[in-house]
Every structure is written in C-alpha cells, then in structure tokens.
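User: Quick sanity check before I run a bigger batch. Here is a single chain. Can you write out its predicted 3D structure?
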Amino acid sequence: MTRGILGYIAAGLAGLTAAAHILIGTFDTVLPLWRSDLPFEIQGALQACFHFVSLFLLYSSWSFARAAPGAAAIARLWIGFGLCFLAVGIAGGALWSVPQWLLLLPTGVVALAAVRPRESA
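Assistant: Done. Predicted structure follows.
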C-alpha cells in the first residue's frame, strides 16, 4: 500500500469511525449494559468485545495512514463488518437503527482501493 491520498482518506474515515464508536458507543451500548440485569460473565464478555472493536478501529486508522502490511486484509474486514450491519438492518426491518454500515463500507472500499496498486504489482 502506498501512502497516497486514498490511504489518508481511509485513515481519516477509520479515525472518525473509531471516535464515533468510542464516544457514542459508550453511552448507547456500554452504559446500558452496565445498568442491565445480565450476569457479570455476559456483561464482561460484551464489554471486552466493545473494547476489542475500539482497538481494531484505532489500529485500522494507523494501518491505513502508515501503509502497514496487512492493510488490504483489514480493509476487507471493514467491508465484511459493514455487510454484516447492512444485513442485520435489512433483516430486522430497521436499517437506520444500525447505521454503522454507513462508515464501515465506504472506509473499507476506499482503503481497498488504496492498496490495489501494490497487490497487482
């Protein structure tokens, strides 16, 4: 992956997604989870998953900006994650209730476009 403009755009989108996940997700997901009656084993596992995703999103931004090895695989994961949210939203009849796909899909596509020249060489 070269550090072209597409790589920097993907890094910016990934950073924006990470910030939204951490800032909005804390209030939308983590705090209600803490207030729930779920056993700690479930709460703890879900909270850890939330933080796994936070780390992945932050690492993705760094990876896209630095043209790190593996950026193409990370971009494909973004597309896959976006498709998961899209499918869940469509299947649940509430596409706009899970808008994560709006950032995941474009970020993955832009990042993948940024890595394509190197992969075909």
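The chain has a mean pLDDT of 92.

User: Great, the batch can go ahead then.
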